[in-house]
Amino acid sequence: MSMYEQQVCAISCLLPTRATRSVGDKMGLAVGLGPSLMTLIDPREETDGGGENEVVSVKEVDLCLAENGPPHHTEKYELMEREKDPRLVVRRGQQFVMRITLSRGYNPEKDAVSFIFTVVDAEKPNYGQGSLVAVPLLANGAESGGAWNAVLENSTENIITVHVTPAADSIIGQWNIEIDTKLKNDGAFSYSHKDPIYILYNPWCRLDQVYMEGDNLLAEYVLADTGLIWRGSYNRLRPCVWKYAQFEKDILDCALYLMTKVGKVGLSGRADPIKTTRAMSAAVNSPDDNGAVQGNWSDDFGSHTPPTKWIGSMKILQQTVTTYSSAHDTQNSLTVDYFVNEEGETMEELNNDSIWNFHVWNEVWMDRPDLLPGDYGGWQAIDATPQELSEDMFRCGPASVAAVKQGEVLRPYDNAFVFSEVNADKVFWRYAGPTQPLKLLRKDVLGIGQLISTKAVGEFKREDVTDSYKYPEKRATMLRALKQSESHFSRYYLNDDFNDINFNFELRDDIVIGQPFSVVVVMKNRSRTENYTVKVILRVDAVLYTGTVKDAVKRDDVERVVKAGAVEEIRMEVTYDEYYRRLVDQCAFNIACLATIQGNNYEYFAQDDFRVRKPDIKIKIEGEPVQGQEFSAVATLKNPLPIPLKKGQFLIEGPGITSQLKIKVPQNVAPNTEATVTFKMTPKFSGRSTIVAKFVAKELEDVDGFLNFMVEPKNEVNGTGNSTAA
């Protein structure tokens, strides 16, 4: 499967992540949950209370899930709200509540209580690596989060309420809890919970390395379960909704599995978001470590699911940043080199570097104490789909975005790779044979790293974050980076530019698939005295979004005299019949022009990306959505093609839908007619929600749509019989 959209929702389960930046941990409302009660396994016979001279023992423990969830922003996790065998999920550096039922009343003068916390998968838990923590119960004390502590909140009869605070640098993952009770200077009992608790990073805690300030930012990057990924090309941006699904069944456990078993993060390393995210960027892909998904950047997916059919991370775990015209520089030259022959054809056998129409990666938010001195904290880029090894593994980052902007390509981790993705220059070379020298046709210093995009905070709109990666005038930064590079290509690249006759592509109109489109090349003769004869090869090729050329769609050879001071236009019309059989995954085309000026042998090469637009699915809700109540919605798609759509199918995800809906369209959809399906869902939570739909047919796929809406709180019936809003 291709992975252009899948940086791990796993990461979003663990720390703040920006999911669309062409682009985390997400959470919101209290749910009515019964207490999680743990029964004492006592090696001695139980007594009916006993006196104060008997050793006090633990009979039950209430983990107070409904009380702990909202302040920890974890109440939406399926682990917390499921009816059978729920588990406590909390965040480090912040207190959580436990209510403990004892065999008798607690006497702080005689009784001693201690809590023993151990990491579940630690073979030999120990204090040195932080996988074993012993905390005495204190009558009072600080709860700052700087260190583990347990404080007695109150004692009523034989029930004590305890506030436990994990340290702000605790290991994340599952922890076992034991409670030791004893008479001071006398015998002791030990109680073990049958189920572990989960401890996560805490962006709400100032002492945590992932601390993020601003409720609106936390709501977007930690709590939201839906984001936008920007696809297409720089001149045809296309937003697609992505369901992170970080709260859904098994997702948190899967994220932890990727960290511990696939990423092989050591115990102490799990406390460090730098080490965790670096390991996660390797654990998602599978070339060298049996990761979550197999990368496939072709158009042949065999029996596997094409990425264009994905709606979210329920099964594959992902979240994301998009840049348009993203570079993959395999030479470490900080340039991307393209080779073309005398026909204007891209020579794939020579092109090791590549320019993707778009590329998606993750950003994660954290401080970077390892890069001191310097202010390199904040957003860090990680990429689970790198095309090369980093320290002998396919992984990338975390790379400080602030360092990338400054051209600090030697900073860890993989800053040079990320710098090239967004800053490299395109260099076009003319190849005339193995014994002939390469001819430098053209340099494009602006074409790579355009429109770096993420979902806007609190809105389903695009936010442009290009300025956080690069300066408007990048030459000084580029020269700084080049001086740090040891590539021979880099030193040669610093030679002079070529400048001559002006050519310009004009891709006219916003073309919907099914319609023809025009490619126009405008040539301007800037000389006031000389006429020029120009031989032009104009070609359109179908390409994958990775920039790999597939089939030729159309080619025109034109010779034109451009008189002094004049402007000439060459137009090539491309019909649906000419392009539809050659379309590949995302309807993208590479349009290229090779022009030769007769008499001086000057050659000019230029290329651009173009894609035809897919239609949108329209979604409409019937009635007013209310928490806990079923409602209906309708999805509609109009066929834009001049041929019928056969065996169509809608894929639906939305609130309360535990597994993806697949609804078949019962009949063929004729040209210019609509396919309509109705479906139902029952939202579990109130607040903002999203329905996402895709349509797939043999003749038309990768069509999607979404609808944002509010779910009203359910009504409660009070003691007088009146209904009130919850």
From TrEMBL:
Membrane-spanning segments: none
One Pfam match: Transglut_C
GO molecular function, one term: protein-glutamine gamma-glutamyltransferase activity
Xref: SMART domains: TGc (SM00460)
Transglutaminase-like domain location: 300-386
Family statement: Belongs to the transglutaminase superfamily. Transglutaminase family.
Name of this chain's protein: Transglutaminase-like domain-containing protein
Organism: Timema genevievae
Lineage: Eukaryota, Metazoa, Ecdysozoa, Arthropoda, Hexapoda
